[in-house]
């Protein structure tokens, strides 16, 4: 079964895992991420892609909430 391949650009959260001085904190904006994969779920609330798709299996699923998505580009193959 042929699946659509998409490039998704989205804003992802960041975190800090160490103590910081309050007066030295610098801005920490969200990170922009880009992934390419086979579109598995094209739901209104989220998109799920996979790195690889076989006849009966998938590898490397990622679900991205629609509110975080900046751009979706359909790719051809």
Fold and architecture overview:
- The protein is mainly β and 77 residues long.
- Helices cover 0% and strands 56% of the residues.
- The chain contains no helices and five strands.
- Strands 4-3-2-1-5 form a five-stranded antiparallel sheet, with no helix packed on it.
- β2 (31-42) and β3 (46-53) form a beta hairpin.
- It is elongated.
- The two termini are 14 Å apart.
In whole angstroms, the N-to-C terminal distance is 14 Å
Low-confidence stretches: none
The whole-angstrom Rg is 16 Å
Amount of helix: under 10%
Beta fraction of the residues?
Answer: over 45%
Going by helix content, strand content and strand pairing, the class is mainly beta
The number of distinct β-strands equals: 5
């Amino acid at each position: 079964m042929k699946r659509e391949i998409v490039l998704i650009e989205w804003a992802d959260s960041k975190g800090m895992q160490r103590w910081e001085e309050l007066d030295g904190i610098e801005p920490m904006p969200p990170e922009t991420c880009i992934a390419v994969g086979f579109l598995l779920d094209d739901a209104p609330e989220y998109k799920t892609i996979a790195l690889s798709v076989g006849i009966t299996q998938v590898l490397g699923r990622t679900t991205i909430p629609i509110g975080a998505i900046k751009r979706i580009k359909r790719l051809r193959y």
